[in-house]
Write a structure and sequence with these properties.
The complex is a heterodimer of chains A (407) and B (86). Chain A is built from 14 helices and 14 strands. Chain A has 407 residues and is an alpha/beta fold. In chain A, strands 5-4-6-7-1-8-14-13-9-10 form a 10-stranded mixed sheet, with helices on both faces. A two-stranded antiparallel ribbon of chain A has the order 2-3. In chain A, a hairpin with a 3-residue loop joins strand 13 and strand 14. The chains are: A alpha/beta (407), B mainly alpha (86).
Chain lengths: 407, 86
């Protein structure tokens, strides 16, 4: 296929702090359930100042992988593969050789195999062992999730990892969307994965001094920062003609992708960068601000992000900003960094499909600097034609996707 | 000037972003042009230098305004150092 295609989503997969399937994730979001809890994944958690995270709970790798395959898979790749299998199964596609070579695998991650990295450092620096496990390097590389999904699902087209910290998954999905739209590939399996709850990484986050000690309250007065999460979200994208021809169940349509760089501060959010990314997504989608009903915000729960994102929404949407339903699902699943944009696009697609906006939980009271409608604490029925999902990363790298209800 | 004051001044002098040859106890932190990440790095350097814990969350604390002057930082560090040894 060549030319410009409409791009639809025909499969979704998610491993999240609310469960290991899209159904459990979406159900938890709609109920306003919190996936946050005490940190259990690090062996020395008593020493950590940070006590809470949104861990993927009760994840038993042997339920999904044979022991032999498991020795090649960091936790981040396990999440990516489990989510990809779910998405591919839902799509109903089988990748024969003709489709396999025309299918892209594009997977974002912030860092890659952080558990493998942490464990091997512990062995060599702390335990003074002279060797690490033989597959340490291919387990920890940042392209491992993409490679493992490609191998597990048998996808032989363009495949690589995308790295942009908290925007990785959104950049990955946006790129896959453009590749399918432009006819470079006939199908894409794309999303993001992160498994960052390790002792060394938590120490790094503590040192940034941006972590909330208990809960994540995006946009609320009294918010004290972010809470780390983990997981993966994957989706199957294909041209509308292909999906229609095989009578696939179409879950939604991706219509716009915008990107920008702040070229300013390493970590402080930038109003101009946010606005340019959102405007870019609207322009790419040929949508006007008034066409949007729902924003899945970046909404990390830090003082700086939430205030700046609110100002960026005012600037991009003008008076219509007051009418938007805006929520941060990070309040329920934490900040899964390179997976966050994927988990959030899944939530956005399902919000559009079902006409239900997931809430921002932990919301206490209005902050004068955050003066929009953040759908506090309870989900809300909203008829949605089009929605936007924001990701704004450390390093000043911004990515925004726009989706539409499929009709 | 105490040893603590000399060390604190040396740490802040590395982080300042204004063209001023010396840092004095009476200097206001805001006038030294510290940015947000400079403040986080300053806190880290102080903790490492004096082996103390400074409670600080960038979402709710702003050392650039909570401590008006360099002298205020010195006093706070001296208090934490004294608590450690008492």
């Amino acid at each position: 296929m060549t030319g410009v295609h409409r791009v639809v989503v025909t499969g979704l997969g998610a491993v999240s702090p609310l469960g290991h399937t899209v159904a459990s994730y979406w159900d938890g979001l709609k109920r306003g359930n919190s996936g946050l809890g005490p940190i259990t994944l690090t062996p020395a958690n008593d020493e950590l100042t940070q006590k809470v995270a949104a861990e993927v709970k009760d994840f038993e790798p042997l339920k999904y992988f044979a022991e032999r395959q498991l020795s090649t898979l960091d936790r981040v790749s396990q999440f990516a593969v489990v989510a990809a299998r779910e998405a591919v199964a839902q799509s109903g596609l089988s990748f024969d050789m003709a489709l396999s070579v025309r299918t892209a695998t594009i997977v974002g991650t912030g860092v890659g195999g952080q558990t493998t990295l942490d464990e091997s450092f512990r062995r060599v620096y702390l335990e003074k062992r002279t060797r690490v496990f033989p597959l340490t390097i291919p387990k920890l590389m940042a392209n491992a999730p993409a490679s493992q999904v490609s191998m597990d699902c048998g996808l032989r087209g363009p495949a690589f990892g995308v790295v942009s910290a908290c925007a990785s998954a959104t950049h990955a999905i946006g790129l896959a969307f453009h590749m399918v739209r432009g006819g470079m590939v006939d199908c894409a399996v794309t999303g993001g994965a992160e498994a960052c709850i390790t002792f060394g990484t938590l120490r790094g986050w503590e040192a940034m001094r941006v972590m909330s000690p208990d809960v994540c309250r995006p946009f609320s007065k009294g918010r004290m920062g972010l809470v780390l999460g983990e997981g993966a979200a994957m989706m199957v994208l294909e041209p509308l003609e292909r999906a229609r021809a095989r009578a696939a169940n179409i879950l939604g349509e991706i219509v716009g992708f915008g990107m920008s760089a702040d070229a300013a501060d390493l970590t402080a959010p930038d109003l101009g960068g946010m606005v340019r990314a959102m405007q870019g997504a609207l322009d790419d989608a040929k949508l006007n601000p008034a066409d949007i009903q729902y924003i899945n915000a970046h909404g990390t729960g830090t003082a700086a992000n939430d205030e700046t994102e609110t100002r960026a929404l005012h600037q991009t949407f003008g008076p219509h900003a007051q009418r938007l339903a805006i929520s941060s699902t990070k309040s329920m699943v934490g900040h899964a960094l390179g997976a966050a944009g994927g988990l959030e696009l899944v939530a956005t697609l399902l919000a559009v499909r079902d006409g239900i906006v997931p809430p921002t939980i932990g919301y206490l009271e209005r902050d004068p600097a955050c003066d929009l409608d953040y759908v506090p604490n309870e989900a809300r029925a909203v008829a949605i034609d089009a929605a936007v999902s924001n990701s704004f990363a450390f390093g000043g790298l911004n990515a925004v996707l726009a989706v539409k209800k499929f009709s | 000037m105490s040893d603590v004051a000399g060390d604190v001044i040396a740490i802040i002098a590395k982080k300042k972003r204004v063209d001023k040859p010396t840092v004095e106890l009476s200097d206001r932190l805001l006038d030294l042009g510290l940015e947000s990440l400079d403040a986080v790095e300053m806190i880290f350097d102080l903790e490492e230098k004096f082996d103390i814990q400074i409670p600080y969350n960038a979402n709710t604390n702003n050392p650039r305004t909570e401590f008006e002057t360099v002298g205020d930082v010195v006093a706070a560090v001296e208090k934490l150092v004294a608590q450690k040894t008492s």
